[in-house]
Amino acid sequence: MPWRTRIVSTGDGLPAAMAVDFLALMKPRVMALAVFTAFVGMLCAPAPVNPAFALAATAAIALGAGAAGVLNMWYDMDIDAAMSRTAQRPIPAGRVAPADALNFGLLLATVSVMMLEILAGWLPALLLAFTIFFYVVVYTMWLKRSTPQNIVIGGAAGALPPVIGWAAATGSVGIEGLVLFLIIFLWTPPHFWALALFKVGDYARAGIPMLPNVAGEAATRRQIFVYSLLLAPTAVLPWAMGFAGGLYGAASAILGAGFIWHAWKVLAFESEDRRPAKALFAYSILYLFAIFAALLLDALTRHAIGLA
């Protein structure tokens, strides 16, 4: 394919469409979730956080998350071209050249790690660098194409942002940061396997060994239910361990019950019916946002009344 970059000039001569395509390479929706959980991790920490520092550190983490997305799209351009839901991404659609994407991703990764090291020290910077490496090299280049457990192991990269935020605020990881990590880690498999159940043909055409393609849909539905049973009580741990209050405890219990109910519907319905999987996928996005929004509200309340 002859690579081309689609340019649309704005009034001041800036290539607006090109900027949009490079932003798309950063996977802004995925980046937004990573940034939000990192920000919540920062504010949940017991140490007081200066607002200017929090914004700057969050910006550095955002650039790191964007870098991981760009490098993922660069390496996965062949897979993206084969799948209907990704074929119009900037690289397979020919709007951004692979070399430009690679250089952009490496630049973002370097700037983000250096920026966070200057702002918050070596530990959060090291965690950010490890997250980018794990997502790009371990997950994208190795696990994604070689094992149906790609999402389980690779989910560690997506679960690290709140740990980075906690480390940026405190200078350490702490058991609390690890609990936040575990919530996202256990959430990731049922979230992505629900997607894989109703996109099984796409993954088969691309040659990606997602669990439904390898172990079958019945086994996938059982695994989704098992992970949901593990996730729901794990999400209550911040309240049980005392670093979140009763409001969060009640919210997490209700949201967890909803997750289990959706997972049960996926397990109970015949595999030909894709509606329960689609409903679980949509609910899982709402669930993770709501869990961390409840944590954020709890943290802001506790800081306001001097409990944190």
Written description of the protein model:
The chain is mostly helical and 308 residues long. It has two domains: 18-172, UbiA prenyltransferase (Tetracycline Repressor, domain 2, Orthogonal Bundle); 173-308. Helices cover 77% and strands 0% of the residues. It contains 15 helices and no strands. It has helices at residues 16-25, 28-44, 51-75, 77-82, 98-120, 122-146, 150-159, 161-170, 174-198, 200-206, 211-214, 217-234, 237-240, 246-268, 275-304. Helix 2 runs parallel beside helix 15 (275-304) and helix 8 (161-170) runs antiparallel to helix 9. The longest helix is centred in the C-terminal third of the chain and has 30 residues, at 275-304. It is flat and about 55 Å long. It starts with 15 loop residues before the first helix and ends with a helix.
Note the overall shape.
flat
Tell me the total number of β-strands. 0
Structure annotation, total helices? 15
As a percent range, the share of strand residues is: under 5%
Order of helices and strands: HHHHHHHHHHHHHHH
Low-pLDDT parts are: 1-14
Helix content: over 70%
Radius of gyration: 20 Å
Q: Describe the largest sheet.
A: none
CATH level 4 superfamily of the largest domain: UbiA prenyltransferase
CATH architecture grouping of the largest domain: Orthogonal Bundle
Structural class: mainly alpha
The fold-level CATH name of the largest domain is Tetracycline Repressor, domain 2
Regarding CATH, which class of the largest domain? Mainly Alpha
Count of all domains: 2
Q: What is the straight-line distance between the termini?
A: 56 Å
Q: Roughly what is the average pLDDT, rounded to an integer?
A: 89
